[in-house]
Amino acid sequence: MSLSEKKVSLNSIPKPFLFVCVFLLTLAGFMIWDQVYWWNNRDDYSFGFLVPLFALYVLYERRSQIIGYLTRYHEESVEDSQESKDFLTQAINIFFIGVFTSGAILFFLGALIRIATTPQNPASLAIAIGFSMILLATAFIFSEETLDGSKLSIRERFSFMMLFLFPALIWLVSAPLVSVLETKVRVFLLTQVTIIVFSLMDFLGFAIERQGNVLVLPKGVVGVEEACSGIRSLTACIFAGSFLAAVYLKQFWKKVLLVLTAMLFAVITNLFRSAFLTLWAYFYGSEAINDHWVLPLIGDIGSVHDVMGFAVLGLTSVGLIMLLPIMNFSLSAYLNDSDTIKSEDSQQ
Questions:
Q1: Deepest in the core among 30, 107, 197, 309, taking most CB within 10 A?
Q2: Structurally, how many domains does the chain consist of?
Q3: What is the distance between the alpha carbons of residues 100 and 144, in angstroms, rounded to a whole number?
Q4: Which tens digits make up the pLDDT trace of 57-107?
Q5: 220-223 vs 292-295, strand pairing mode
Q6: Is 2 a residue whose pLDDT tops 50?
Q7: Phi and psi dihedrals of 149, rounded to 5?
Q8: Does residue 197 have a pLDDT over 80?
Q9: Are residues 194 and 74 in the same domain?
Q10: Closest CA to 189 of 277, 280, 268, 289
Q11: Of the candidates 266, 282, 259, the residue with the CA atom closest to the CA atom of residue 228
């Protein structure tokens, strides 16, 4: 009886695997401790508190697949022995050893900077990138042999590594970008939002003037500030899209497409938000966007500016959820089901 037919317990797991799990959990704990500072002090990264929970959920949801690979039994064959000696296989193994080493150097350099100084964007980003490289490389390297000592093929090891793609890369979204890069992204988004909103309102015939990132209206001016750049909703939507793709989609290209769609939704909804706030300021004055909306039975729900900010995140999330059935639709499966129903009806 193979291990795949047995219930896996701690006693049946080799000590090297347990050591690797403890090692990875220790690194993850340090990384979370580092990123908590940004989650507490940066509103645009407050979603980071959900990242550890969602990463654990994805691992829990894939636990049967992970255990299935680790307990998979393979008969010894000539092909397996030849594959283990194949030059390409050895080259791939060396490549991932290099990825692991590079990730470890990057992680510990970031950790040294973090311990020696105050929290810094480069240190947090280095820790996140290093952890991602370590986790993915470890998943590939240690899946060469299953728990019963048999060998997995290169393709199976890649498939096993892909199970950890979301738990490895999602930390890059919850970690802040390097200040220089983040500033360039914000300035670019700010400029594009201002230009598009101004062009739209000018095209519709509204009396408006643009002075840099300031829109001059008849009842005051509206400054397109950093919060209006859309980078906050962009990072949050990338996180939401990545989680939904990891849990509900199987094909890798569909996962990538959903994440790109989430980014597109974030940009479009932020443009809608900026245009709405500008129109609100046009008709009611520039100070009106800071007025609070009070609803019957609910009370104060926040300022117009904040409510619209949460609304665009909600619209994006709903849009992504509505896309899931479309992206999971399989025409071949639908046709096969239709043929099966027709054959059953004909038999009756």
A1: 197
A2: 2
A3: 15
A4: 999 999 888 888 887 765 544 444 454 457 788 888 899 999 999 999 999
A5: unpaired
A6: no
A7: 90, 0
A8: yes
A9: no
A10: 268
A11: 266
Q: Which domain holds residue 55?
A: 6-174
193 and 304 assigned to the same domain: yes
Query: Among residues 217, 346, 190, which one has the least CA distance to residue 288?
Result: 217
Q: List CB contacts of 256: < 8 A, sequence separation 6 or more.
A: 245
Residues 168 and 190 in one domain: no
pLDDT at 221: 75
In this structure, is residue 1 part of a structural domain? no
| Tokens linked to 141 | 């390297």
Q: Residues 207, 266, 130, CA angle at the centre, nearest 5°? A: 135
Q: Are residues 127 and 189 in the same domain?
A: no
Q: Are 81 and 153 in the same domain?
A: yes
What's the pLDDT at 53? 93
Same domain? For 189 and 87 the reply is no
pLDDT of residue 160: 92
| More reliable by pLDDT, 302 or 196 | 196
Query: Could you tell me if residue 346 is inside a domain?
Result: no
Per-residue pLDDT tens over the stretch 275-313: 888 888 888 877 777 776 656 656 666 666 667 777 777
Please check whether residues 143 and 203 belong to one and the same domain.
Answer: no
Contact (CB, 8 A) for 243 and 54: yes
SS (H, E, C) the chain: CCHHHCCCCHHHCCHHHHHHHHHHHHHHHHHHHHHHHHHHHCHHHHHHHHHHHHHHHHHHHCHHHHHHHHCCCCCCCHHHHHHHCCHHHHHHHHHHHHHHHHHHHHHHHHHHHHHHCCCCHHHHHHHHHHHHHHHHHHHHHCCCECCCCCECCHHHHHHHHHCCHHHHHCHHHHCCCCHHHHHHHHHHHHHHHHHHHHHHHHHCCCCCEEECCEEEECCEEEECCHHHHCHHHHHHHHHHHHHHHHHHCCCHHHHHHHHHHHHHHHHHHHHHHHHHHHHHHHHHCHHHHHCEEEECCCEEEEEHHHHHHHHHHHHHHHHHHHHHHHHCCCHHHHHHHHHHHHHHHHHC
